[in-house]
């Protein structure tokens, strides 16, 4: 029988209820999945990142085959996604291609190109995984001089009735649970001198036969790629993802809010959910995660402050960054508002640096494919911002290293939130701080040869030197930002001669790093 639909399932679309599979008829349709070599090579992906995608895709194909659905699955070879698709079209002669909206601008472009080249109809269906469509976000953004996540988040809370209570006094009949939209003031503590206690063990999934064969393949074929597979234990199927969710809700959510921003050397997992991979591969829906967290609060199992903080990450930030991505692509890729022009220091790929915070965060990222938000934003990201690394190189590093890295979410977080390269679209001010922030939120500085309070001299913390140099370099731009006024005002207390010392020390820091390449 002639093939009706060739249904393309991309590596981050592993959801059997995705719109592309609506009306799938095994008698006349076929699923198409492809492990494309260019995807692993185009971004210099870490071994963990390559392995999670391949292993999760193979498990998903197995799930579909178990339903007796035909699956055309192309295992890794040298083909690119579009070349492989053109060849499959020539062989299978489908009447049309069907796909759920790709998460990456470049992939959507390539599929459109295939459609032009082959003349085969391409049906791009809306991605129901997200709680705000690309068009809805564009409508939210239209006419606003400045976008701010907080207002978007409130709209989303109302629209999806999350953490809302009926309230006859309120204009729309609802007000936020607990009478506030945001409980940040109750969250975000640092650990005491003894550090975290009784951190629950990470959910681990020992590799099965499929995963073991992928790990062997990656070890052999991508031996020179960064990172290690020794600690590989990620959830790769929907069942495992649900187990990870359940484990988080029961064991970590009650403590999540308090320790959301805290760091501790050698403690990678802490009280975070580790759900970003499962969410981004679409093994879990954001709404089911949000509802589970809300229910835990309603059942008295977790405090409202922490639950609200967690919900804001998913219903607020995650949806917001996706909106920003699609609103601004493809120009967003090239944003560099602060004209940063330094190469990424080589030790970002090895972790071999004397700076204790960076050594820990980078080594952990390479070994586990994971770091929590504050490690990404206020350790690696902060250093790159202050040092003045080209945003495109920072973007390439984040996209490479983390298992949850998919461009729609990674790019706005890196370029926008962490590097301020979009000039303030994502964040109202640069996340710039001295080493004292890291000292307050972690124990890293205790094991470091540098002193976070010092900005010049042999013991000066590089973050602190580079922070003041950053303010000096961008003084006129930052002075016009009311949210930076206090920070910029502090420059007035620094004498001209100390300014010269800061500049000279920052310059020699950069010279040393570039010599080590
Ligand atoms: P938790 O701390 O448990 O948070 C719960 C969930 O909220 C996460 O699983 C995630 O889905 C969502 N979330 C939290 N913060 C954000 C955010 N800022 N943007 C979008 N979603 C958020 N997240 C990715 O999923 N992929 C990336 O490639 C990515 N790159 C980042 C790069 C930089 C420079 C920064 C600063 C942040 C990045 N983030 C990225 C956001 C965030 O750091 C990760 O989602 C989080 O650390 C994942 O760990 P977790 O699942 O334990 O999160
Ligand atoms: Fe990091 Fe500076 Fe603290 Fe060392 S002193 S751990 S470089 S913040």
Q: What's the topology here?
A:
Elements: E1 5-8, E2 29-34, H1 37-42, H2 47-66, E3 71-74, H3 81-92, E4 96-100, H4 105-118, E5 121-125, H5 134-141, H6 149-160, E6 164-166, E7 174-176, H7 209-221, H8 238-256, H9 276-280, H10 286-298, H11 304-328, H12 356-368, H13 373-387, H14 391-401, H15 407-418, H16 435-441, H17 462-473, H18 475-479, H19 485-489, H20 496-515
Parallel strand pairs: 1-2, 1-4, 2-3, 4-5
Antiparallel strand pairs: 6-7
Helix pairs in contact: 2-7, 3-4, 6-11, 8-10, 8-11, 10-11, 11-15, 12-13, 13-17, 14-15, 17-20
Bound molecules: flavin-adenine dinucleotide and iron/sulfur cluster.
Could you explain how this protein is built, in words?
The protein is mainly alpha-helical and 517 residues long. 48% of the residues lie in helices and 6% in strands. The protein has helices at 37-42, 47-66, 81-92, 105-118, 134-141, 149-160, 209-221, 238-256, 276-280, 286-298, 304-328, 356-368, 373-387, 391-401, 407-418, 435-441, 462-473, 475-479, 485-489, 496-515; strands at residues 5-8, 29-34, 71-74, 96-100, 121-125, 164-166, 174-176. A 5-stranded parallel sheet has the order 3-2-1-4-5, sandwiched between helices. A two-stranded antiparallel ribbon has the order 6-7. It is globular. Bound molecules: flavin-adenine dinucleotide and iron/sulfur cluster. Iron/sulfur cluster (SF4) binds next to helix 12, helix 16 and helix 17.
